[in-house]
Amino acid sequence: MKNLKFIILFLLLSNCGYSSIYKNQTSLNFQINIIETKGDKVMNNLIENQINLYSSNDSENIYNLKIDTDYSKTVLTKNSSGVITDYSLSVISIFSINLEDRNEIFEFVENINIKNQTDTFEQITYEDNIKRNFASSIREKLISSILSLNDN
User: Fold this and answer.
1) φ and ψ at 119, to 5 degrees?
2) 6: which of 13, 21, 116, 148 is 20 to 30 A away, CA to CA?
3) Residue 17: which region, alpha, beta or left (left: phi > 0; alpha: psi -120 to 50)?
4) Digits of tens for pLDDT over the chain (152 positions)?
5) Phi, psi values for residue 96, rounded to 5°
């Protein structure tokens, strides 16, 4: 019985259809130098770490990047006793990219509405996970934008 469950689980997970958006790229042929960061330090660090995963140090295409992020946590609703029940988390990232004689500016926005949890530790952990997901999503959008610049 346990083997049957394992086999079914294996078949479901192995055929889920996931493939990386960079699967067809044998090598991302660019280097990203982050020359300036402004705004929210935590988000900037998360985004910078994500970007460094895809930057090639031996490339001839060198992009100089400036990052400006604004992270906000806004109260959406409170219950009748004044306790916060819902938040909105959002990040706006503006990237200024310089490649030789071209300058491009990209702006990416991520947001999510969440419920307030009674356990403060769980709330903080959940928000940290959301920040990491925001950074990963922004990185994917930025890499796609850079790849489209290379196509032009």
Assistant:
1) -85, 115
2) 21
3) left
4) 666 666 666 666 665 555 454 444 445 677 888 999 999 999 999 999 988 887 777 777 788 899 999 999 999 999 999 888 999 999 999 999 987 778 899 999 999 999 998 899 999 999 999 999 999 999 999 988 888 876 65
5) -105, 115
Burial class (CB in 10 A: 0-12, 13-18, 19+), 106: middle
> Sign of torsion, CA 27 30 33 38?
negative
What single-letter amino acid sits at 63? Y
Q: Helix axis angle, 120-151 relative to 41-52, nearest 10°?
A: 50
Q: At a CB cut-off of 8 Å and minimum separation 6, what does 26 contact?
A: none
Q: Of all helices (H) and strands (E), which one includes residue 149?
A: helix 120-151
Regarding pTM above 0.90, the answer is no
- What is the rounded end-to-end Cα distance, in angstroms, of the chain? 56
Q: Phi then psi for 55, rounded to 5 degrees?
A: -95, 130
CA 99 to chain centre: 22
Number of residues written out for the chain: 152
